[in-house]
Amino acid sequence: MKSELVYLCLLWALSILGAPVNKQRQKVLLISFDGFRWDYDRDVDTPNLDKMAKDGVKALYVTPPYLTITSPTHFTLLTGRYIENHGVIHNMWFNTTTTEKKPYYQTQFVNEWWDNGTLPIWITAQRQGLKAGSLHFPGTASSYQGQVAMVREVEPLLYNYKNETAWRENTDKVMGWFRDQDLDFVTLYFGEPDGTGHRYGPDSPERREMVKQVDRTVGYIRQSAKQHGLTNSLNIIITADHGMTSVYRNGQVEEITLSKIPGFSFRDLSFHLVDFGPSGMLLPKPGKLEKVYNALKGSHPHLHVYKKEEMPERLHFAKNDRILPIILWSDPGYVINGVLQFHKGEHGFDNQEMDMKPFFRAVGPAFQKNLKVGPFETVNIYPLMCHILGIQPEVNDGHLNATKHMLVTSTTTQGEFISD
Fold first, then answer.
1. Which candidate among 3, 137, 303, 348 keeps its CA 20 to 30 Å from the CA of 162?
2. Active-site entry in 46, 68, 70, 196
3. What per-residue string of b and e applies to 25-64 under the rule 16 or more CB within 10 Å gives b?
4. What's the chain's average pLDDT?
5. What CATH number corresponds to the domain at position 64?
6. For the domain that residue 282 is a member of, what is the CATH number?
7. Which residues contact 129 (CB under 8 A, 6 or more apart)?
């Protein structure tokens, strides 16, 4: 009788405090649609994204870190750290001594590029008793301090990122991981509309058709979650790594061609990364830094040139040994050494530019319904996910205060880990 009285008192106390009784554990699915700009739903009918916003939360836009390219910005989503702090500073692994470079896909398998002191949320969750998985998300192939995501799948070389049938198969596979293997956290990556935006441009009919495919897939994702019995436990966060902007072509502007700049010579460099759209990094030979810098600074009205230590603090892209001594980026529409590049759309520009901003949607039992919120930085998504999962976050640059107004306070978390 005494124990029953204690139990009834406990139930009464919990009800007064607004805490749920026998609450189901919250799960999180983080999805990235690469290159989905914040406004891509404005010139396309997107009924499923609209329904997701009505059932959950929509942000006006989110701001990625600089440098606005795929691997660095995805690792920010996984760690809540700016790029200078997590160290995955580029899509391309490089060695300044041998001048070797590896492209995006091969860089996924260079373990030390990823595992250099910062833990992604998969490992943090697993160390605190949860189960995590990842499908195709950048960083999946690596181990971190000897640990990997419990369930993981890396896309094969020359993978067709556009295949809608594969998108649905991958969706069902991930939902199966949640249901059948009781995973708590999964990341899922889709390589579009980035590829289409690059090839045809962000204002093209091809991009609009790809956004329709994304929207159909969002509907399928939510349908699959329901069919797998996950509606009451799964929180779905959908965002992207960066946006996209149109590239000037065919004599529209004076192109930025480094070899044509008076006083500049590639012979003065030990190493360079200037084959990647609007951004670049240079390592001058000993004694040549001032010569290279002075030749480039002010050489083109749409080229920004900084010594590493003079980079604007807001970009958080200086305090890392991997970042080279001179950093370049161009204004929207301009690319560096554009004669070598054929894309009609590009990213990698200043993260303050509106065309670099991605979209954000969230739905599930932790989130309020029909809520539109203002913009926030993507570093803040990490502490949000940790809070919902009830895990203690690693040191990060985000703040839960930036996102907690999205949450249904009485039903959000397993724990009380406020990283602010």
1. 348
2. 70
3. ebbbbbbbbbbbbbebbeeeebebbeebbeebbbbebbbb
4. 92
5. 3.40.720.10
6. 3.30.1360.180
7. none
- ∠ Cα 336 243 384 (to 5°): 130
Catalytic status, residue 231: no
Q: What is the pLDDT of residues 209-250, one digit of tens each?
A: 999 999 999 999 999 999 999 999 999 999 999 999 999 977
Q: Do the strands 234-239 and 360-363 form a parallel or antiparallel pair, or are they unpaired?
A: antiparallel
Write the pLDDT tens digit of every residue in 328-384: 999 999 999 855 668 999 999 999 999 999 999 999 999 999 999 999 999 999 999
Question: How does DSSP classify residue 59?
Answer: E
Q: Which residues have a Cβ under 8 Å from the Cβ of 359 and sit 6 or more positions away?
A: 36, 37, 38, 40, 41, 59, 61, 62, 238, 239, 240
What residue has token string 């060695």? 95
Digit-coded pLDDT (tens) for 40-74? 999 999 999 999 999 999 999 999 999 999 999 99
* Model pLDDT, residue 342: 80
Query: Domain range holding 405?
Result: 27-247+352-411
16 assigned to some structural domain: no
Q: Report the length, in residues, of the chain.
A: 420
Residue with tokens 């360079």: 272
Look at residue 62 and give its three-state secondary structure: strand
Q: How many domains does the chain have?
A: 2
